[in-house]
Design goal:
The complex is a heterodimer of chains A (227) and B (293). Chain A has 227 residues and is an all-alpha fold. Chain A is built from nine helices and no strands. By secondary structure, chain B is of the alpha/beta class. Helix content of chain B is 30%, strand content 26%. In chain B, strand 1 (3-11) and strand 2 (14-22) form a beta hairpin. Chain B is globular, with a radius of gyration of 22 Å. Classes of the chains: A mainly alpha (227), B alpha/beta (293).
Chain lengths: 227, 293
């Protein structure tokens, strides 16, 4: 048993034993309802609308609940304290916890993305597979980006209240397409899904920005957990 | 020999703290629980002091993760390791930290075996601290053991067992215990440090009003015979009649309350004396620290 494996187990247990499975169930029902509702606009336009609504609105809220659950509704340092106390390297523990949260986030994003596409297109649509592949790619990037940002946000506030502030700022500032929206995942996810581009960039640049800012957020979180 | 050195340590309302401790048992007495909780977090390397340095041996206690493996702590608020059961979590900690005892033995030393079957998330804050104490006082290669109010866990834990475990641990490590109870500070029996208004005194034996801090009023028709017999007991440092009650009430003083009461009861049994009432008087912290500013 190493400190890294103990951290991974502890984070996974918190995720599975906390509110994350129930939140995923609820988000899946909401996503299914949105997909069925969007189906009225036809498969192409309906899929676009459903994916935007689900990955743009429902996913950040689900990932907020996931990170709350995975970190035991507390700050990052407090959540990892039982392991740090045993002599574990704090930064390695924080990195492992982020990886576990990212893995959970990607799986949840896949579930929501798949519901959006399957719900609007149905199994017989010829565009199902290419659309599903593209959506799951964007969902993966969104899952990784949001979980890294939420880990950074978890280093603020007495009980990790920075997470809620991050989601609010992402929603407020990330909705635009100017300079202020550049750091936030929301704008880039919207652009990757075919919405308005951030700073007029190409979609390939959005993926790079999304991952670049996520990496910066992760490094900042590790720097703040200087133990 | 382990050494712990605090140099100009400042944090919130604490400090500057300057201190040097070597292997042994120390009790930190304060009337401020938050100050004591903060001190335990600082000493255990879980919190970086705003200013100053805390060295365990030659290395800082904060930021050197290998150092934390040499420190055991019982915090004011214990966070359990997520696991299916407490026993499971302790077994995993044992695999990582090389605890010599199995989880049942670890909990059984303090009579807390039944907690092993429970889910850590379902433990009450007190039960979490009980598990934390069992872990902190587990045998192992520790240089520093710092415990927030360990005697506050009695009951449900057994007070003599905790005291004995602390004394045994202090043979090879620096053991720092904190308390807001003068009686507990005396019972711990080590050198006492006073933490008052954020400042720590140098380790020493409690003086002044605290040197013989406990009084026991013995109401008895045989008070005169008690007055003649009790001074021979090692637990008693002074005997006096209460002027207000004439010769029917005796004030007996000593450094610890329990031995004082035992001495009275043993004397009564041995000489067939009657005791109507025993009234303990525990001095307040005001007698040690003075009036709050």
């Amino acid at each position: 048993m190493t400190a890294a494996s103990l951290t991974a187990r502890a984070t996974a247990r918190r995720l599975l034993g906390g509110a994350a499975p129930a939140a995923l169930g609820l988000a899946s029902l909401v996503a299914l309802w949105i997909a069925v509702w969007a189906r009225r606009d036809g498969p192409d336009q309906g899929a676009d609308r459903a994916v935007h609504a689900i990955l743009g609105l429902a996913l950040p809220l689900l990932l907020l609940a996931t990170s709350e659950s995975g970190l035991g509704r507390s700050r990052l340092d407090r959540a990892l304290r039982p392991i740090w106390r045993l002599g574990a390297d704090g930064r390695v523990s924080a990195l492992v916890a982020t990886l576990v949260l990212s893995l959970g986030a990607v799986l949840e994003a896949w579930v929501l993305g798949a519901i959006a596409i399957l719900g609007t297109r149905g199994l017989s649509d010829v565009a199902l597979l290419p659309d599903l592949r593209a959506t799951l790619f964007v969902a993966s990037l969104a899952g990784i980006a949001y979980s890294c940002w939420l880990v950074l946000a978890s280093t603020f506030g007495r009980r990790g209240g920075g997470r809620l502030i991050f989601v609010a700022l992402d929603w407020l500032l990330g909705s635009g397409d100017g300079v202020l929206s550049a750091p936030w995942p929301r704008g880039h996810v919207r652009s990757l899904l075919g919405g308005a581009p951030v700073l007029g960039q190409a979609q390939s640049a959005d993926a790079a920005w999304l991952l670049g800012f996520a990496a910066a957020a992760l490094l900042a979180a590790l720097w703040r957990t200087s133990r | 020999m382990a050494t712990l050195t605090l140099t100009r340590v400042c944090e919130k309302k604490l400090g500057p703290l300057d201190l040097s401790l070597t292997t042994g048992l120390y009790a930190v007495l304060s009337r401020s629980e938050p100050d004591l909780a903060l001190l335990v977090e600082l000493l255990s390397g879980l919190r970086r002091p705003r200013r100053g340095a805390i060295l365990l041996g030659p290395e800082p206690s904060f930021g050197v993760h290998a150092q934390r493996a040499r420190v055991a702590a019982l915090l004011e608020d214990e966070d359990p390791l997520p696991a299916p059961t407490v026993r499971h979590g302790l077994a995993e900690i044992g695999e990582l930290g090389g605890l010599p005892d199995d989880p049942d033995q670890l909990l059984g030393r303090f009579g807390a075996t039944e907690l092993g079957r429970r889910r850590p998330q379902h433990l009450s804050p007190l039960e979490r601290r009980v598990v934390g104490l069992c872990l902190a006082l587990a045998p192992g290669d520790r240089s520093l053991i710092t415990l927030y109010d360990p005697l506050g866990l009695c009951p449900p834990l057994d007070r003599p067992r905790i005291l004995e475990a602390c004394r045994r641990a202090a043979e090879s490590a620096i053991v720092v215990l904190t308390t807001t109870s003068l009686q507990d500070a005396v019972a711990l029996g080590g050198r006492t440090l006073l933490l008052d208004h954020g400042r720590l005194s140098t380790p020493g034996v409690l003086k002044g009003a605290a040197a013989a801090p406990f009084r026991l009023w013995v109401r008895s028709p045989d008070a005169r015979r008690f007055a003649a017999l009790l001074p021979s007991s090692s637990a008693v440092t002074g005997v006096a009649f209460d002027e207000a009650h004439g010769s029917s009430q005796l004030e007996v003083r000593g450094p610890a309350l329990e031995p004082l009461a035992n001495a009275v009861v043993e004397t009564a049994l041995a000489h067939e004396l009657v005791v109507d009432e025993l009234v303990p008087q525990v001095p307040s912290l005001t007698q040690v620290f003075g009036e709050p500013r």
